[in-house]
Amino acid sequence: xxxxxxxxxxxxxxxxxxxxxxxxxxxxxxxxxxxxxxxxxxxxxxxxxxxxxxxxxxxxxxxxxxxxxxxxxxxxxxxxxxxxxxxxxxxxxxxxxxxxxxxxxxxxxxxxxxxxxxxxxxxxxxxxxxxxxxxxxxxxxxxxxxxxxxxxxxxxxxxxx
Amino acid sequence: xxxxxxxxxxxxxxxxxxxxxxxxxxxxxxxxxxxxxxxxxxxxxxxxxxxxxxxxxxxxxxxxxxxxxxxxxxxxxxxxxxxxxxxxxxxxxxxxxxxxxxxxxxxxxxxxxxxxxxxxxxxxxxxxxxxxxxxxxxxxxxxxxxxxxxxxxxxxxxxxx
DNA sequence: GGAATATATCTTGCGAGGAAGATGTTTCCG
DNA sequence: CGGAAACATCTTCCTCGCAAGATATATTCC
Lengths: 161, 161
Known about the structure:
The structure is a homodimer.
Chain A: H1 13-44, H2 48-58, E1 64-66, H3 67-73, H4 78-90, E2 94-98, E3 106-110, H5 112-155
Antiparallel strand pairs in A: 1-3, 2-3
Helix pairs in contact in A: 1-5, 2-5, 3-4
Chain A binds a DNA duplex through helix 4.
GO molecular function (chains A, B): DNA binding; DNA-binding transcription factor activity
GO biological process, one term (chains A, B): response to stress
InterPro entries (chains A, B): HTH_MarR-typ, MarR/SlyA-like, WH-like_DNA-bd_sf, WH_DNA-bd_sf
């Protein structure tokens, strides 16, 4: 029934501990992220990909960005991003704006409605993060969290492009 | 051009900082996880869902578990899990084993080949984690990471099933 | 000017997973 | 015993995103 107490079938038990440890860590953060995105989806009808795009656009000068650059930053392929953009255009969040000086590029530009939704969703997101992450952890642990992340990015290939 | 230096169009700049902070944290861990799963997929042909299932089975008594329980632990719907199981049966990683005492339940049972793949993949996974996460972070930071995760799980709904 | 290369976007087909419903099995209760 | 409710699994249809290829435009070199 219980062969974990006295048996040791293979010498890789440490492996299992490490993999389990990492699994729990990832699971915890993913669960938090899922709840957060679920809230955004419920309240604003924004799937994660669309919310991410809105955040990037509302931070951009003139609230616009070339499609390709946006796709790259959101870690989407151009083909995949086309359909995300289609849905966002249909929802009146962005519009496609041809570039005057380079007719290859199309800007994704935030509509007034899109800017409004982005700001409100960002506010809700920040409030929830404060309540469910920052406050419980405390600033010190939150800082450690970001530091650990920075270490991971530095060790592994941090490809900024 | 640069309206971030001297302008402050809305009073929610702190919101943006928090959301950005969390986005970077999530992105860092997800990138690590993606690389890890990419390695497992490349070397063993195991998609993340299948690898997760294998780990749970290899830890289980008699290397088997009822389908529904497995689906629940892997955060999949029963319908979605059926097809994952189909692929794993086709790859000779698991087989479906009817239960003697309750003819509703079907066990997912690890095949010999499945057990072998699971052990080798787990070893690779643990080695990579040691090299790219545990060693760079140090045991203290790694401990802090797990602690922060535990806090998050405690604050938000920790459903132990 | 005009061909070759690079860039930006869109279209088609595929795999993964979820939701709703169908089927067969067990358990509960009169 | 016999029917109703709960349960486990599977089937069908849907959405989402990626990969590969097609099309159109820009830039560069001759």
